Amino acid sequence: MSGLVTAVVGTRPAPRTVGPVTQTDVVRFAGAGGDFNPLHHDPEAATTAGFERPIAMGQLTAGLLAAWLTDWCGVEHLRELSVRFTAPLRLGDVVEVAGEVTSVDDGLAVLELSVVRDGTAVLAGSATVQVRTG
Questions:
Q1: In b/e form, how buried is each residue of 106-129, taking b as 16+ CB within 10 angstroms?
Q2: Which of 9, 50, 54, 79 could form a disulfide with 46 if both were Cys (CB 3.0 to 4.6 A apart)?
Q3: Residue 105: which region, alpha, beta or left (left: phi > 0; alpha: psi -120 to 50)?
Q4: Share of the chain above pLDDT 70, in %
Q5: pLDDT tens, 23-79?
Q6: What is the three-class DSSP state of 68?
Q7: Sequence-ordered strand ranges (E) for the chain
Q8: 6-22+56-133 is classed in which CATH architecture?
């Protein structure tokens, strides 16, 4: 099968820096996904809910991670993706999306994934991708 990335335990695809996250990013994502919760666009609603400012949708954060991962391995080779939201992604945030291969077995690599803002994880996850072993 062509197009497979080569991976061994310890492989770290080049991380990606994304941001700053803008209100336009959130509006575009809301339009695409239909999530018009005021927490994502109304400063007063965000403050009332205990946030400093509006926050991005969790699925926007997951989308940043999925885009980075599939740019590396190819969407056709992604077998499983699991995410856990650990902190809100706020307007103005700059994050690093990264991961590391933690196991490889029978042509499938497992990666531990993260989206981190200033040392704070906003998302943790794992993925299984089809790879060529090196």
A1: eebbbbebbbbbeeeebbbbebbb
A2: 54
A3: beta
A4: 98
A5: 999 999 998 988 899 999 999 999 999 999 999 999 999 999 999 999 999 999 999
A6: helix
A7: 6-7, 16-18, 78-85, 95-105, 108-117, 120-130, 132-133
A8: Roll (3.10)
Instruction: State the residue for tokens 């949708």.
Output: 57
Which residue carries 């400093």 as its tokens?
Answer: 52
The b/e string for 27-56 (b: 16+ C-beta within 10 A; e otherwise) is eebbeeeebeeebbeeeeebeeeeeeebbb
- The two tokens of residue 79 are 């077998």
Query: Are 116 and 122 within 8 A, CB to CB?
Result: yes
* Distance (Å, whole) CA 5 – CA 12: 12
Alpha helix positions (H), 18-131: 23-33, 43-48, 58-73
